[in-house]
Amino acid sequence: MAKNVLRFAPSPNGFLHLGHALSALVTWKAAELLDGTAYLRIEDIDVQRCKPEFTQAIIEDLHWLGLDWPEPVLVQSERFDIYADAANRLRNMDLLYPCFCSRADIAAAADGSDPDGAPLYPGTCRHLSNAERIERLERGDPVQFRLDTEAATERTGMLTYSVIGPTLNDRPQIRYARPQRWGDVVLQRKDTPTSYHLSVVVDDAAQGVTHVTRGRDLEAATDIHVLLQMLLGVSTPIYHFHRLLLGDDGEKLAKSKGSPSLRDLRAEGWTPEDVRRAVGVFP
Fold this sequence. Notes:
By secondary structure, this protein is α/β, with parallel strands linked by helices. The protein is built from 10 helices and 10 strands. The protein has 2 domains: 1-78 and 245-283, HUPs (Rossmann fold), CATH 3.40.50; 86-242, Rossmann fold, CATH 3.40.50.620. Helix content is 36%, strand content 16%. The radius of gyration is 20 Å and the shape is globular.
């Protein structure tokens, strides 16, 4: 295994755009600077929206950019049992509890927002008795499982992690994680035995990831990841948060907004060099 390991982990719920190209190229550039290895990971836990044709398109687009990676590619939908085991470890620590609140319930009861701007869950179901939890689970009420963040941070104490930035050549700086600002995050849903937070932490540990490069829009989520890393007894990587590419509306590029895909640009005659110039990452 390489001494330094990085990963690019897109979700195959659409075609890659220039924002993804920036993230991928930054990751492979970091691997080069660190004399490390960059892996491709397919984060397809949302089995309803993720499609095999998008996975194949991701592979084709990245090869077109001149990028390569070790095989086999880790595919998250093949690892649900592993994520469920990690969740059960947290459950055995009395840190995971069932929540029966709908989105409307949460919006009505929330007092504030999380770092993503969503209504902050007020911890309603954390206070249910065991008898009521069992009754509702046996009744088949819609359920998701949340991390008791307050109890978790009492167990771990103060949390820190290292960040390289603003450039990849800078020295690491220490930052403090603040998972409390997220409230009790969802780690499992009834139809999916994991969440983005849980699967990312489990897979980074499994692949021996030493450095994580991700967009600044995911910087706040690192609070939760560092907490889970400590709880599960795995290493915390060094992080680098790169800039985001913005559209004409001043918002980041996104599949949901119909941002031009790499294959659209390729059809218009763009070359890999054109993409590198557009995102500002060169060999």
